[in-house]
Amino acid sequence: MQHSEPFSFTIVITGAPYSSQAPQTALGFAKAALASGHRIDRIFLYGDGVHVASSLSSPPSDESHWPREWSQLLQAHNIPGIVCIASALRRGIVDEGEQKRYELSAHNIRPPFIIAGLGEWVESGLRSSRVIYFHGGSRA
Amino acid sequence: MSTLIIIDSAPYGDWSGREGLDMAFSLAAFDQSVTLLFIGAGVNWLRKGQSPEGISQKSVEKNLSAAPIFGVEALLADGRDCQTYGLTEDELIASVSQVELGPELLNQYKHTVFAG
């Protein structure tokens, strides 16, 4: 395929791993985009998508480990992984700062993901040439 | 840049619509042009007199009524879906405009976002 100019993508994932196909489909898209010479500005996890950033996911060893695969891709290509703070706190995805603030018993965010606000997503709309959404799609 | 956020699921059954509203209010807070469109069962978000206290949830009616004040440019509802759910104009919260969902409408926006 011929491209006159590479795109810059922001990928938004709102479906949880193991509940939906969204994180896996998004990963396939990200790999294909990078392989075609496009840039990925950031990954933004929103809603149930925040579970991709859990460091506690432990699927059986003969199943794909989507959170780990996402971390590896982000690290290999130096892509920022942003987790929406409001979505994350509701669902128990916590970094060290939020653990202290809410006096919680643990933190569980998987590097290189970091917690930030919706402002990061707003900026994506301004900066990236495309913002692509991967939803859980459980509704008809 | 203008963004259309589309909410297509009924209120209170899951958090996706609520988190879609957060996206709209966030864009407005950063002075970005944003419009909310409710389609399918999502039109029920716009029904007057919601009282979800019985299921320990907060009503979003006040937030939605205040959306224009917070900078959301318009609250739109698919007119045909309002009819399907028996929502007449006086049963909708104030400042909702009924529209026809189609390419003409969608072409007015640079970004279109479905709430999860």
Automatic annotation (TrEMBL), chain A:
This is Sulfurtransferase complex subunit TusD. It is found in: Cytoplasm. Gene3D superfamilies: DsrEFH-like. Belongs to the DsrE/TusD family. Pfam families: DsrE. SUPFAM superfamilies: DsrEFH-like. Keywords: Cytoplasm, Transferase. It comes from the Bacteria. NCBIfam families: PRK00207.1, sulf_tusD_dsrE. It comes from Marinobacter koreensis.
UniProtKB/TrEMBL annotation, chain B:
It comes from the Bacteria. Transmembrane segments: none annotated. Belongs to the DsrF/TusC family. This is DsrE family protein.
